[in-house]
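Holo prediction. Input below; ligand is EPZ.
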Amino acid sequence: MEYLRIKGQQKINGTIRINGAKNAAVAILPAALLTEGIVKIDNLPKITDIDKLVEILKALGAKVSFSEEHLNIDSSGVDNFSPPPSLVNKFRASYYLMGVLLGRFGQVKIPMPGGCNLGPRPIDQHIKGFTALGAKVELEDGLVKIKAKNLKGAHIYLDVVSVGATINIMLAAVRAEGKTIIENAAKEPEIVDVANFLNAMGAQVIGTGTDVIKIQGVPELGHAEHTVIPDRIEAGTFMIAAAATKGEALVAEVIPKHLDPIIAKLKEVGAHLEVGPDWVRVKGNNMLFPADVKTFPYPGFPTDLQAPMMVLLTQAPGTSLITENVFEGRFRHVDELKKMGARIKLGGRTAIIDGGHELVSAPVRAMDLRGGAAFIIAGLISRGETVLAGVEHIDRGYEHIEKRFKQLGVSVERNTISNEIFPGK
Ligand code: EPZ
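Structure of the complex:
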């Protein structure tokens, strides 16, 4: 089993080039199944969710090859609409295979998706969209079976602002007959990136980035080349780490507009920020101020940076509040942070942080991707050396996380050990 060893009281000091966005890439790869043409995708992050998706594409009959930084996918030979369950239920984004296989073949058989445990993660809005497009959806012994003679465009009003449902319905609709309108759609930049890739293949999608998306179905799609946008969540993680360690980071090859909520909140907490055309420099400040953070769908403060932000606020003297409005179960990192001396009280969707107290290292376990990143930041600022288990969660969304932090001038070591140090799973 792998774990990270993080020396305490280190200061971030360095420059880092941000990788392609995980939450765009995990939809763009399945979207390659929608075309009989050949696609070339650049700037994919080297993370395990992408590795798993490549395995699934190959298992379905696609030809996948790597050349320098690009991935080439030829799905012309794909004739299977039942992805291997062993691969599918390991991560959440496998649900995009529903939309693409339904769009390509008119049917799909797939287990319910896995992924981080952030509380209940239903897919009722995805199913609402597929049903509106004319598909029949059955749940049978843990498998979702979806079938449609032919998909017809529909006017769909989402009950919940959902990134996954917005993308999944878009994927199924691009080859449906006629026009589809998705209202109350999510507006995340990753959704815009997926639509840009679909349109490069010949789809007709307009309105992404707003809450009304219109899709005119087309009978087939062609070749395309696409470069994935930078990962605003990876960028935000390193920006918060710089502020928390009172160090300095130049975060390069970003789209600053996507970072607006993080830039605003870090300024409020007292960090010094300089914003360039495609970079942001963050300088920590010895004096940090408490703040109130409310997570909301884009352009609100991203729920994926809630845990890292919580670590930063444990260092700001005074009382800070974090309200998690997107996922009801996204405070699983609080107990572990309290083991490190953080003073946090939970009340429903709100965490009350009594900040300004030193953290002390302790053996902690990551239970989800972003909580894992938060513990690295906590380890860097605490007294002593922190041992962090559950690295496989971090590897799902951060490429070679220990090497990335090394580029920022701090030492995070990856080790392997048997289970005796961390009994239990
Ligand atoms: C995506 O998850 C991201 N994952 C998450 O990032 C991110 O936290 C989340 O969007 C919010 O931005 C990927 O893109 C692979 P949602 P998703 O559907 O699509 C409820 C990370 O760390 N809901 O926008 O699963 C849901 O329970 C991951 O990179 C329904 O009720 O999120 C939640 O409360 C973690 N019914 C809210 O909507 C549905 O059918 C938002 O979920 C779908 C969602």
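The chain has two domains: 2-19+230-421, 22-227. That is the main takeaway for now.
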